[in-house]
Design a protein that fits this description.
OB fold (Dihydrolipoamide Acetyltransferase, E2P), de novo design (two linked rop proteins), 6 helices, 19% strand
């Protein structure tokens, strides 16, 4: 990787440890308390707890005993799971070059406990590597998934969005727009994103010309003078719902709003991607 200091991407949280690169149509009526449709999809049957050929990405890994790793992976049909990669730290282990972040894998494992045993991992290929600013953005995505996704909660739609986001970053699409879309998709797929086109309580349509705040638990409402929450125009809210980020004001306001909403969902947990970038830039 180039030693050139990367330019600063527009990450949402204000203070975010970056994991080092690892070595390696809903039913007609769903109760309000029900989990999102994506998370309720049935997973493929696993005989005796054995799974093979599952699309997966490494999010993070850390040492386990003398020669092994515990690998936090994001899988398409099983969600975020923890796997023990036995012997992965040995110099001649085939897993050393496979269990890398941002590489599409076909993974297999066995076991039914929270900590399963990795039985195989194969690099699939077909994606460009992330470099410089895109690489830092990739670590930011992984941190969000580790902190905001519960283990063993499938999110196949979010998995597909993650793959698309990595591809967009690798092809140098504008990082601020790519990140805002992913952040919004993450909140939607985990069931905590409100409809930005309707006011909470009244259910009146959001007016593009008015100013609003977004209650993290309920959704938009007209702004008041005493509000300390970020004040956002109706146009920005409507643009975000349509995934239209061409307007400079929409980009700036959506960054502030997503920073606020993610901080609420993190509940005090910190993400350090942004702080490490600031340290590198000596700001």
């Amino acid at each position: 990787m180039s030693t050139t200091t990367p330019a600063q991407p527009d990450l949402a949280p204000a203070s975010l440890v970056v994991p080092a690169p690892a070595a390696i149509a809903p039913p007609a009526a769903i109760p309000a308390s029900a989990p999102p449709a994506a998370s309720r999809r049935s997973r493929p049957p696993a005989r005796d707890g054995k799974v093979t050929g599952q699309p997966a990405f490494v999010l993070h890994s850390y040492p386990h005993k003398e020669t092994s790793l515990i690998v936090d992976v994001f899988t398409r049909e099983y969600g975020r799971i923890a796997l023990v990669a036995k012997g992965a730290k040995r110099p001649h282990s085939q897993l050393r070059g496979v269990l890398q972040t941002f590489q599409p894998l076909q993974a297999g494992w066995t076991g039914k406990s929270e900590l399963r045993i990795l039985t195989g991992a194969e690099w699939v290929g077909g994606m460009l590597p992330l470099e410089k600013t895109a690489l830092l953005c990739g670590f930011y995505l992984n941190e969000l998934l580790v902190k905001l996704l519960a283990r063993d909660d499938p999110h196949p739609v979010l998995f597909d969005h993650y793959v698309a986001t990595l591809n967009q970053l690798a092809h140098n699409e504008p990082a601020p727009i790519v990140l805002r879309k992913f952040e919004r998709a993450l909140l939607k797929e985990t069931g905590v994103a409100a409809d930005l086109t309707r006011c909470t309580g009244t259910r009146q349509a959001v007016d593009a010309g008015q100013v609003y705040v977004v209650d993290p638990e309920r959704g938009p409402r007209p702004a008041r003078a005493a509000d300390a929450w970020p004040k956002i125009t109706g146009k920005t809210l409507l643009d975000m719902e349509r995934e239209e980020y061409g307007d400079v004001a929409t980009q700036a306001q959506s960054k502030l709003l997503m920073r606020f909403l993610l901080a609420h969902q993190l509940g005090g947990a910190t993400l350090n991607t942004r702080q490490i970038l600031i340290d590198l830039m000596q700001l």
